[in-house]
Write a structure and sequence with these properties.
- Helix content is 38%, strand content 14%.
- The chain is α/β, with parallel strands linked by helices.
- The chain folds into 2 domains: 168 residues, Aspartate Aminotransferase, domain 1; 253 residues, Aspartate Aminotransferase, domain 2 (3-Layer(aba) Sandwich), CATH 3.40.640.10.
- A 7-stranded mixed sheet has the order 4-10-9-8-7-5-6, with helices on both faces. Strands 1-2-3-13 form a 4-stranded mixed sheet.
- The protein is globular and about 65 Å long.
Length: 439
């Protein structure tokens, strides 16, 4: 039941294909389902035909307060009247850095960049400069942006031949693979072996503490912390997704494990382009250009829009709302209703469906067993997950088919009820009456 589009909508899509190749990110819907969005408010987005969707993409996560939250709109408007960028310190950037330091256990010093990819790239550079070592260890299926080091075994089509990575993109020099080791998420024994074998070369271990939507197994993160400390390797948490989403202090607060460095983005700035690297002052100090005059290593970190005051103002407004009592309890409760309802719908239909994730971020996986690593995700029926997502989109949910659902403070009980109705219809649409998946 793909919705028809107006001629004007089709023209927007044609122009977008000509000028932008059909997308502004890697999020590309099939031609039959592609949309051009005109605006959003709260939990809803609206396309150029005026059709409304309950939004579970939320700009790929940043809009934890929902679209056009009044506090964020007011803060950005106020700052815009004062100036848009200065390439130097501003009160908004200073105050936002101070709030990150108050909130995040590992944060003693902060550096701003504009994107999550920049944040993880610079965190790895800082780690190499601080330790004097060149190699990093990451986990198969872990996504840390789109720079060369990140795009190593982030989404390989089959399990990696660990510890050798495989590039996920053309254009990456083969020499990059020589500096990256790959382990399996939640496999502490394998990771211990790799760290012990390569300790003298490893600058850092980087991970998403919630890898995409795969929670850490009990003891896994604390085991990484113990191993990296034992061998003087930096532990980096990529909290671009989890920061200020799983808890105000991020995954560090949620899981009780404190890394050496962490990266932030998405929810940090409420929908405006800003990201951050935070960590122990001793480590972060390698970005100080005064070191260069003393002949010490410097991790160059700069960008024209770093600490942009508009984005920093949006971040301060967002964090002010997130500090209010009951915020995270609400986010967890509303998401738990969605997840529990979907599980019940699947069980009633005899569908082997798993809902994985933690807090207000989850993913629908069609699998007999709950996956615990990337290989488990590969064994799941991704084609069916994508078809389910497209069926949801057809019925009024804006989703990234086969990928994560993000939940915001703007989502209501009414949104949950309507979403579960759509989930039920979407399941029925992709399954035979017997509960067998369509071929």
């Amino acid at each position: 039941m793909v919705r028809t589009r107006s001629a004007a909508h089709e023209e927007w899509l044609r122009r977008g294909h000509t000028a932008l190749g059909g997308a502004v990110t890697s999020f590309v819907l099939p031609e039959t389902h592609a949309v051009v969005l005109s605006h959003g408010l709260g939990s809803r987005v609206v396309d150029v035909d005026g059709r409304e969707y309950i939004d579970y993409v939320l700009g790929s996560g940043p809009l934890i307060l929902g679209h056009a939250h009044p506090a964020v709109v007011e803060a950005v408007s106020r700052q815009a009247a004062l100036g848009s960028t200065f390439y130097t310190l501003t009160p908004a950037a200073i105050e936002l850095a101070e709030e990150i330091i108050r909130a995040v256990p590992c944060a003693e010093m902060v550096k701003f960049v504009s994107t999550g990819s920049e944040a993880t790239f610079h965190a790895l550079r800082i780690a190499r400069a601080y330790t004097g070592r060149t190699k990093i260890l990451k986990f198969e299926g872990g996504f840390h942006g789109v720079h060369d080091y990140a795009l190593m075994s982030a989404f390989p089509p089959e399990p990696s031949d660990v510890p050798t990575p495989r590039p996920d993109s053309a254009g990456i020099p083969p020499q990059v693979a020589e500096t990256v080791l790959v382990s399996r998420w939640n496999d502490l024994d394998l990771t211990r072996q790799l760290i012990e074998t390569h300790a003298a070369e490893l600058a850092a271990v980087i991970c998403e503490p919630l890898q995409r939507a795969l929670p850490p197994a009990p003891g896994f993160l604390s085991g990484l912390r113990e191993l990296t400390q034992r061998y003087s390797i930096l532990l980096i948490f990529d909290e671009v997704v989890t920061g200020f989403r799983l808890a105000y202090g991020g995954a560090q607060e949620r899981y009780g494990v404190v890394p050496d460095l962490a990266t932030f983005g998405k929810a940090l700035s409420g929908g405006y382009p800003l990201a951050a690297v935070a960590g122990r002052r001793e480590i972060m100090s390698v970005t100080d250009f005064a070191r260069k005059g003393r002949g010490e290593p410097v991790a160059h970190l700069s960008g024209t829009l770093n600490g942009n005051p508009l984005a920093a103002a949006a971040g301060l407004a967002t964090l002010s709302v997130l500090r209010q009592p009951g915020v995270y309890e609400y986010l967890y409760r509303i998401t738990d209703q969605l997840k529990a309802g979907l599980r019940e719908l699947a069980a009633a239909r005899g569908v082997p469906l798993r809902v994985i994730g933690d807090g207000p971020v989850f993913q629908v996986v069609f699998a007999e067993d709950e996956p615990r690593d990337y290989a488990g995700m590969l064994r799941a029926d991704r084609e069916l997950a994508v078809r389910f997502g497209l069926a949801c989109l057809e019925r009024g949910l804006f989703v990234n088919p086969g990928e994560k659902f993000y939940v915001s403070l703007a989502h209501t009980e009414e949104d949950v009820a309507r979403t579960l109705e759509i989930f039920a219809a979407a399941l029925d649409a992709v399954l035979l009456p017997s509960g067998t998946a369509l071929a």
